[in-house]
């Protein structure tokens, strides 16, 4: 399988230049007050003196949709900001929007088919494929040239993701309440809410249907056994329980 790195030669400069960037705004955050002078001063000091190296390694913004494992009716828009840990592993922080005051709602790890194939059966139940997300046009890389986006999608189509959301924004929670929830990606047409897709598309002035047609020549790799386990009728989720403290 092709590695991730060749795509960086083409996309990194473009992604850095054209990815969604907006001037910072001082807005009230969910469950709290507006930023005060001390907070702004601390932020300015950190910006000037600290390296923020892990954040600077982020080079890609992709936007798609997730649903809660075991409850496909609970669907959310997910803005991924991703970096590479190597040729076969990416890690992404996930926000609910691409605005300066976006909520950090989760994380996703993305690996190649080769690495997924080596996982044990129980671990595989936590992972989902990206074939439909790419071929349906639902997964996009906002505001980069179509040729660069398509090349990126060619590399993502055969990968697998493990996603945990820590903030249940679809419930309107003002704070990140409860325990992490395992999320999945769609595997067939008609599963994602049309209104959710329409709202996202209108925000960027794009058409998922057009992207689907444009990606029709992207080969669909065979989905390896063990992924998308929710389709079997069983779904994995965490549960909160009290244990003796040691």
Tell me what the structure shows.
The structure is a single chain. The chain is an alpha+beta fold. It has one domain. The protein has nine helices and seven strands; from the N terminus they run H-H-H-E-E-E-E-H-H-E-H-H-E-E-H-H. Strand 3 and strand 4 form a beta hairpin. The longest helix is centred in the N-terminal third of the chain and has 13 residues. The chain is globular, with a radius of gyration of 19 Å. The N terminus is likely disordered.
Kindly list the characteristics that best describe this protein.
246 residues, alpha+beta
Number of domains: 1
Low-confidence stretches: 1-28
Mean pLDDT: 88
Anisotropy-based shape: globular
- Count of strand segments: 7
Terminal CA distance: 46 Å
What structural class should be given to the helix and strand makeup?
A: alpha+beta
Q: Supply the number of helical segments.
A: 9
Radius of gyration: 19 Å
Region (Disordered): 197-246
Protein name: OBAP family protein
Pfam families: DUF1264
Biased composition (Basic and acidic residues): 198-217
Short overview:
With 246 residues, this protein is of the alpha+beta class. The protein is 30% helix and 20% strand.
Task: Please specify the SSE layout and strand pairing.
Elements: H1 6-18, H2 37-49, H3 53-56, E1 60-68, E2 71-84, E3 89-95, E4 104-111, H4 113-117, H5 121-124, E5 128-129, H6 131-135, H7 146-156, E6 160-165, E7 181-184, H8 194-204, H9 208-214
Antiparallel strand pairs: 1-2, 1-7, 2-3, 3-4, 4-6, 5-6, 6-7
Pfam families: DUF1264
Biased composition (Basic and acidic residues): 198-217
Region (Disordered): 197-246
């Amino acid at each position: 399988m092709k590695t991730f790195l060749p795509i960086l030669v083409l996309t990194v400069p473009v992604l850095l230049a054209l990815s969604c960037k907006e001037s910072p705004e001082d807005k009230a955050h969910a469950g709290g007050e507006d930023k005060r002078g001390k907070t702004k001063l601390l932020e300015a000091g950190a910006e000037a003196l600290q390296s923020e190296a892990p954040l600077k390694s982020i080079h890609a913004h992709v936007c798609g949709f997730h649903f809660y494992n075991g409850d496909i009716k609970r669907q959310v828009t997910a803005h991924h900001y991703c970096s590479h840990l190597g040729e076969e592993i990416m890690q992404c922080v996930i926000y609910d929007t691409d605005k300066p005051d976006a909520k950090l709602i989760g994380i996703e790890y993305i690996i190649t088919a080769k690495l997924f194939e080596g996982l044990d059966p129980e671990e595989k139940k936590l992972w989902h494929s990206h074939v439909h997300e790419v071929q349906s046009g639902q997964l996009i890389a906002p505001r980069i040239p179509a040729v660069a986006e398509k090349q990126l999608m060619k590399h993502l189509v055969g990968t697998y993701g493990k996603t945990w959301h820590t903030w249940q924004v679809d419930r309107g929670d003002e704070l990140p309440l409860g325990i992490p929830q395992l999320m999945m990606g769609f595997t067939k047409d008609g599963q994602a809410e049309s209104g959710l897709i329409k709202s996202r598309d209108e925000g960027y002035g794009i058409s998922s249907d057009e992207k689907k047609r444009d990606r029709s020549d992207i080969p669909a790799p065979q989905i390896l056994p063990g992924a998308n386990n929710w389709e079997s009728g069983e779904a994995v989720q965490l549960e909160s329980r009290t244990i003796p403290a040691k």
